[in-house]
Amino acid sequence: MRCSLSTHVLDTAAGRPAAGVAVELAHDGTVVASAQTDADGRARLADDLQPGPYVLGFSPPSPFFRRVELTLELEDGHYHVPLLVSPYGCATYRGS
After folding, report:
1. What is the extent of the structural domain holding 81?
2. Could you tell me the pTM of the whole model?
């Protein structure tokens, strides 16, 4: 079994994708993938991951949220995890 992960960061205050956001994926305390979001706010982090627990970390464009971390349990298949961020709020969900 293998899994993959992508993300999308949207700056809801500006009403546009958040380009240049640093994103990293860690497994067992070790960073296994890192990227910056492209002009459309998207980043594909990994295509050949072992299933298990991971921490997805973002450094969003917010004066309040300096780092947002999500703990994920990945199984077989592809996962897309968007982050919606504004200066004083953020939300995420499992996309398709």
Report:
1. 3-92
2. 0.92
